[in-house]
Amino acid sequence: MSENGSLSPADVERLLSDRSAETRAQTVKKIAGNLTGRHFSDKERAEAEQIFRLLVSDAEVLVRQTLAETLKSLPELPHDIAFALANDISDVAAPMLSYSDALSDDDLAEIINSKTEEHQTAIAGRSSVSEAISEKLADTGNEDVVATLMGNDGAKISEKTFEKVLDQFGDNEKVNAPMVSRSVLPLTVTERLVTMVSDKLRDHLVSHHDMSPTTATDLILESREKTMIGLLKGGTREGELVQLIDQLHENGRLTPTIILRALCVGDIDFFETALSKGADISVANVHMLVSDSGGQGLQQLCRKFNIPKGLTEMMRVALGVVKELEYDGDPGDRERFRDQVIQRVLTRFEDRFDAENVDYLISKISNTEAGDSATA
Q1: Domain limits of the chain?
Q2: Alpha-carbon gap, residue 12 to 29, rounded angstroms
Q3: Which of 110, 118, 160, 194 registers the highest number of CB atoms within 10 A of its CB?
């Protein structure tokens, strides 16, 4: 490098003739590291790029590693140089695969198909990964690659790809733990995750504690329902809500208790959409029926859905309270609102229960219904 920082003939000579890999690597680092500097003319940049084209085939791994590491974030890096380094052994390719914007999705797809797990993992960790590349990475079926992808919040992942991953790795903690930690997940994917984690917990309770499978299942169902309702956010898109409720219904998890829990936190959309699904009536008609001040419409819906009378009465009272109270959506208001609804419902049923929370209230109502049925 000359005194003014430009590319000198001596630099070129050193790169092409010096037998020491370490010396050549240091020279590469100097030239590449200063390539974006103000001292490089267009002509000198072109000369440097030509030298790099020679060095991508250097026999010494250290030289190629240094080249890749130094050029990985270089703006406007020529595609042929980036692609050559990205197709090298994983130690050389990793920096380029992890950082370089010179690589297209077509390049990345080709490398996923033809290179090693280490290459795939580097791609999975890129700061930005498209849905198409995420799907190709998931299709590798490699645990480490998929776990890295799930832990990368910069990766765009379609619902279809999440479902594929759950089908293959749903009970794999290395994969589902980072998936759970993602900042955004489709509701249907979240519901499946809650189910899988709950089933694992149930098996643990049965095998490690003095608890019957029935008791463990009841406990998990209660926990699962509370978790799912806690995940629902105000402003959930209609299509996403319908898809979630369809999935719950299809898997036998659209229970009267989860519908009541949703109502108790003021989620009228979930409440009406769930009743619509269970009673096989349009949401518009459900809305009209539950708006019936006499409560007859709600009773008809619940009968069609086979919801026990006690829970139907709780829904009627809770619905009236929800309509009367105001839910403003401020931080913590969901919990305050829930407490108000439950308190009012408890007041209505104070001659039967003295519970302090909706879980106890729901279980007592359900147990009473079961007892009534048994003695009938």
Answers
A1: 1-103
A2: 13
A3: 194
pLDDT per residue as tens digits for the range 77-111: 999 999 999 999 999 999 999 999 999 999 999 99
- Return the CATH number of 1-103, one of 3.40.630, 1.10.4030, 1.10.3210, 1.25.40: 1.25.40
Residue that wins the pLDDT comparison between 72 and 28: 72
By C-alpha distance, which of 161, 159, 164, 193 is closest to 177? 193
Question: What is the DSSP secondary-structure string of 278-307?
Answer: HHT--HHHHHHHHT-TTSHHHHHHHHHTT-
Q: Indicate whether this model's pTM tops 0.85.
A: no
Residues 56, 29: Cα–Cα separation, whole Å: 14
For residues 53 and 224, what is the distance between their CA atoms, to the nearest angstrom? 58
Contact 108, 125 (CB under 8 A): no
Of residues 109, 39, 96, 36, the one with CA closest to residue 64: 96
Return the amino acid letter for 239. G
Torsion sign (Cα): 82, 73, 62, 126: negative
pLDDT classification of 213: cutoffs 50, 70, 90: low
Query: What size, in residues, is the chain?
Result: 376
Q: How far, in Å, CA of 88 to CA of 101, rounded?
A: 17
The pLDDT mean for the chain works out to 80
Angle between helices 42-55 and 21-33 (to 10 degrees): 150
The whole-number pLDDT of residue 256 equals: 87
C-alpha closest to that of 277 among 245, 236, 243: 245
Cα 177 to chain centroid distance, Å, stands at: 10
Give the pLDDT mean for 29-44: 68
Average pLDDT over residues 210-222: 62
